[in-house]
TrEMBL record:
It comes from the Bacteria. This is Right handed beta helix region. Gene3D superfamilies: Single-stranded right-handed beta-helix, Pectin lyase-like (2.160.20.10). Pfam families: Beta_helix (PF13229). It comes from Amycolatopsis australiensis. Keywords: Repeat, Signal.
Length: 507
């Protein structure tokens, strides 16, 4: 069997006022589930085209930026000292006619938009706000029409630390609307129709810490359809997180992205993902991949992965394409975080192609040619070269060179499926706990069914106290082992103790 990575590969990223949201219920319901609840007819963060207006007059002491003067914003930023406040008058602000005409803030600069203030790249300029300045703030601005290359971003291009982006619209750009740095706060923004990502949370040599993404509408990103251009690139979606150590992702509306909604890929740790509405994304609602220690709770997740699910079904591929995909990720108590496990609880999942899949690729580990994040090793082994024969075959390296799907606790969720709504037959409505048969490289200590046995029976992965409505089935150990409820609950799998089932779908 070929190594399974659900089509996804790591892309190679290039260096380069709190929104009030509708609360999601966390009150337990009967039947073991406490789903999050979106406000009727809307969402937790329906902010696009509804952003609050900025000040109509310049704040005291602010430098006024005139849209009638091309490049005024960049010129006045260069001439002012750090910590300056700039107020952009109503109108379209342009930066110049060279692709590298851009704004390079200084530490502590603040950019405030008047009602109708737009910074427009006209598909000429690549970047809007660049450089390594810290503690920069952007608010009440629209930033659009920039032509950033793939894997690069328009705002905070160089991942400066401590940036705050609030009540702004970042739309219709190539590449990513935003990059991210440490302690960045992204609150109450509309991040839509960008060519690749709404946010690319990648910083390069310096890991991102204490990232907050809260109350944003993240919609319709990956307009360039990069997965079609670079097959399996794994470089698309609403938000992509790389090597982020500590993130709170709360109260966002993540919808209609042409790829995955939220995707944490490669050595992320200590995530809290709660109270989000994630719906109508072409691929999974959420992927947590070769990463550690997360709490995923009180989210409403619906109608995701219909596009990719149908593609797999049309190919007669039996892999359980899920709404929540945990790939080589789990709890690791040796890595400091707010939790020592990966807990998925009190979520409401309705009419997604499938439910939750826990997967571990037996051939993917540090220094393996099957590891598409080829330059990275686990957080437990500092040097990729350590994971080689003969040392990898014994001692701590045998365990620590693998990203493990372990200590995953799935409980008190509600899973609802109506196949008529999804438009599927037997290939949808599945949970998965599985791996592939290890085959290569020749020196691999994980060949055969070693990892299949481990992920299925030995690594503390548990479903319990969930509620199911509709025709659910379960895939365990390998893709060709499809189980009914009784088989899933019985030995040797012993899953979903305390869970309840009804035959018909319904909220």
């Amino acid at each position: 069997m070929t190594p399974r990575r659900f089509r996804f590969r790591r892309a190679a990223p290039l260096l380069g006022v709190l929104l009030t949201v509708a609360a999601c219920s966390s009150t337990p319901q009967t039947g073991g589930a406490a789903p999050a609840t979106a406000v009727p007819g809307g969402s937790v963060a329906a902010v696009c085209d509804k952003e609050p207006a900025g000040p109509a007059t310049a704040p005291a002491g602010a430098v006024v930026i005139d849209p009638a003067v091309p490049g005024d914003l960049a010129v006045k930023t260069r001439s002012a000292g750090p910590g300056t406040t700039f107020w952009l008058k109503p109108g379209k602000h342009i930066l110049g006619d060279d692709k590298y005409d851009q704004v390079s803030p200084k530490d502590g600069d603040v950019y405030i938009g008047a009602p109708g203030a737009v910074v427009d790249g006209r598909k000429i300029n690549q970047y809007a706000f660049t450089g390594h300045a810290t503690n920069v703030k952007l608010t009440y601005l629209t930033v659009q029409g920039f032509a950033a290359p793939r894997d690069e971003g328009v705002v905070n291009h160089d991942s400066g630390d401590g940036w705050v982006i609030e009540h702004s619209t970042i739309q219709d750009n190539d590449g990513a609307g935003l990059m991210a740095g440490a302690r960045q706060q992204v609150r109450g923004n509309c991040l839509r129709r960008n060519g690749q990502y709404g946010i690319n949370a990648f910083s390069g040599a310096t890991p991102i810490t204490a990232l907050v993404v809260e109350g944003n509408e993240i919609a319709g990103n990956n307009t360039a359809d990069w997965e079609a251009k670079i097959d399996g690139c794994g470089c698309t979606g609403g938000v992509k997180f790389w090597d982020v150590n500590g993130a709170d992702v709360r109260g966002n509306w993540v919808h209609d992205n042409h790829g995955t909604g939220l995707w944490a890929d490669t050595n992320n740790n200590d995530f809290l993902i709660e109270g989000n509405l994630i719906e109508n994304n072409d691929s999974a609602a959420l992927i947590y991949e070769i990463s550690y220690n997360a709490v995923i709770r009180d989210n409403t997740i619906r109608k995701n992965n219909w596009i990719d699910g149908r593609k797999y079904a049309d190919k007669s591929d039996n892999f359980p394409t899920p709404a929540i995909y945990i790939s080589e990720s789990g709890g690791e108590p040796r890595i400091k975080a707010r939790t020592a496990k990966l807990e998925i609880s009190r979520n409401y999942l309705e009419n997604n192609w499938s439910g939750i899949t826990l997967w571990e690729n037996a051939d993917r580990y540090c220094n393996s040619p099957a590891n598409t994040s080829s330059g990275d090793c686990t957080r437990l082994v500092p040097d990729v070269k350590q994971c080689a024969a003969p040392a990898i075959a014994s001692g701590p390296l045998l365990s620590d060179c693998r990203w493990k799907t372990q200590h995953v606790d799935i409980h008190d969720n509600k899973f609802v499926l109506d196949p008529a709504v999804v438009g599927c037959q037997a290939s949808c409505g599945r949970m998965g706990l599985l791996s592939n048969f290890g085959t290569y490289p020749e020196w691999s200590p994980y060949k055969g069914d070693t990892v299949q046995q481990a992920v299925t029976f030995k690594q503390d992965n548990r479903w319990h106290d969930n509620s199911y409505a509709g025709p659910w089935t379960f895939i365990a150990y390998t893709t060709d082992r499809v189980l009914e409820i009784g088989e899933w609950e019985g030995a040797p799998y012993s899953q979903d103790t305390g869970s309840t089932y009804t035959a018909q779908a319904g909220g």
